[in-house]
Every structure is written in structure tokens, then in C-alpha cells.
Design goal:
mainly alpha, about 120 residues
């Protein structure tokens, strides 16, 4: 997505697509904050790391991408494609360059327990 939107980034992580695990991203973000360095990640909310830096000079800033249309979502690279060792497959199609769909965070709340 970033390539077709003129956002020039390169992953340096240990996985084939250059990505990092969640724990590694948290460590990198904290190190970037300590050294006052810029860093760009795909992140999500709600997440405790976002809350940790809320109101500080290291507060997360959203990058708004084009809205996810049905056509764009259908053209997105698959999970296997995003992890491919072939950079052309990872790059995907220009038509798939949009933001992700919104997802609902769902929690189950139990107000009472039955004693056995």
C-alpha cells in the first residue's frame, strides 16, 4: 500500500516481509521515544501502548489512507502474499492501496455467576 501512495518505507524486521512481532514493535517504539527518533508502524486501537503515550510528546499520530472500498479490499494482497519472499507479490496491486476495514472490539460481560 505505502509504495503506491508515495510513502517510502522499508521494513528491516526478521520476518520475510521485513516485519516485527508485537513485542518487538513495542520495544522499538519505546526506544524511538527515548532517542526522539521517528518511527512508522501499522498500529491499532484500542491498545495499551497507545494509551501509555497519550498526551506526551511521543503520542501516536494517525496516518489517514484512502477509504477502504469493496474494490480496494478485493484487490488487497493476501496474508500469504504479504509474507511472501517475492517482493513483487508483497507489493500487491495499486488498486489495493487503501486503509483497512473497521473492526469491532467485542467483549463479553457477565454480571452474575451461578453457584453450583
Amino acid at each position: 500500500q505505502a509504495h503506491y501512495l508515495g510513502i517510502h518505507v522499508k521494513g528491516n524486521g526478521p520476518d520475510p516481509a521485513g516485519g516485527y512481532s508485537y513485542g518487538q514493535m513495542v520495544e522499538i517504539y519505546k526506544a524511538a521515544n527515548y532517542t526522539k527518533s521517528d518511527v512508522l508502524f501499522v498500529w491499532w486501537t484500542p491498545d495499551p501502548t497507545v494509551q501509555e503515550f497519550l498526551g506526551t510528546d511521543a503520542e501516536f499520530v494517525s496516518v489517514h489512507l484512502p477509504s477502504p472500498t469493496e474494490e480496494c479490499m478485493e484487490a488487497r494482497t493476501t496474508l500469504d502474499g504479504r509474507c511472501s519472499v517475492d517482493p513483487i507479490i508483497r507489493l500487491g496491486k495499486e488498486e489495493g492501496s487503501c486503509d483497512t476495514e473497521a473492526h469491532s472490539a467485542q467483549k463479553l460481560l457477565v454480571t452474575s455467576f451461578k453457584k453450583r
